[in-house]
Amino acid sequence: MQIEQLCEKERTIHELKRKMEEKERELHTIKIFAEESHRVAQETLMYKDEQLREVPAWINRVRDGCFPINNKPVIAGWIAKTYRAV
Known about the structure:
By secondary structure, this protein is mainly alpha-helical. It is 81% helix and 0% strand. The protein contains 2 helices and no strands. Helix 1 (2-63) packs antiparallel against helix 2 (76-83). It is rod-shaped, with a radius of gyration of 30 Å. The chain starts with a helix and ends with a helix.
């Protein structure tokens, strides 16, 4: 009877080790995904920050009439009001 119990405990230990290894692989995958997501988020923020820094110059060019739309001048007041919140 004790040998059977010992064998069962060995099987349980083996199964638990296997599950631990599986969970470690899952954790590793999650870490890689999180690092990649973080990198993409940082790149996106840098890109958006760069775009926001360009807004005042773009508004000035519009006010100066450099960007006609459909061969008509852009209404500078609308542009200024729209981008004032930025």
